[in-house]
Amino acid sequence: HCGAVQPNLFGFGGSLRVLYRDLLEPVQVVTVACVALSLISLGAQPDAIFAFRGLMDIGAPDGQVLYLLGMTGGFASACGYAWTVLSANLLHGSLLHIAFNLSWLRTLGGTAVGALGPARFLVLFFGSGVGGFVFSNVLSGAPTIGASCGLFGLIGGLAVFGWRRGGTAGAALR
């Protein structure tokens, strides 16, 4: 902000701001993408809706369907599927899993977009999600999915933003 006409995003900040304000609410975009991938995974294996193996497994497709849609882990890394660390943010393993994650996304997302802006929200959400999945792949290689890495990144980002901002608003964010 040193007197430049468009100090952000190489001059595209204004156009992106109009796009986000008028067309795309980033929390809704992530929500729709998560729901769409869950519906696709259930459409690929419709008997998963009615298979009751336990409360956590209601609407849980098997691992093969999730791997095809982008679940990450040691197997995906070994095959060179680097894109799975991004797609795994949007996949969920059951109806209860997606319900809890989208509930947290709805709670934290509006606050994060208001405090950080829509572009920084997306960078923080997907950046921390990718970072968490890469870390998980390096440490264990276990198959992983879900928006939890991105959500914990939002919690941490809001806490740091509140701490650095200070004042009453910063204390409320912390």
Low-pLDDT stretches = none
Report the span from N to C terminus.
26 Å
Structural class: mainly alpha
Gyration radius from CA atoms, angstroms: 18 Å
Number of E-type strands: 0
| Main pleated-sheet profile | none
Range of strand content: under 5%
As an assembly, this protein is single chain
Tell the overall outline: globular
Question: What level of helicity do the residues show?
Answer: 55-70%
The total count of helices amounts to 9
What series of H and E elements makes up the topology? HHHHHHHHH
> What's the mean pLDDT score?
85
Describe the structure.
This protein is mainly α and 174 residues long. It has helices spanning 13-22, 26-44, 63-69, 74-78, 84-87, 95-116, 118-139, 148-165, 167-173. Helix 6 crosses helix 7 (118-139), helix 6 (95-116) packs parallel to helix 8 (148-165) and helix 8 runs antiparallel to helix 9. The chain is globular, with a radius of gyration of 18 Å. It starts with 12 loop residues before the first helix and ends with a helix.
Topology of helices and strands:
Elements: H1 13-22, H2 26-44, H3 63-69, H4 74-78, H5 84-87, H6 95-116, H7 118-139, H8 148-165, H9 167-173
Helix pairs in contact: 2-6, 6-7, 6-8, 7-8, 8-9
Q: Top keywords for this entry?
A:
174 residues, single chain, globular, mainly alpha
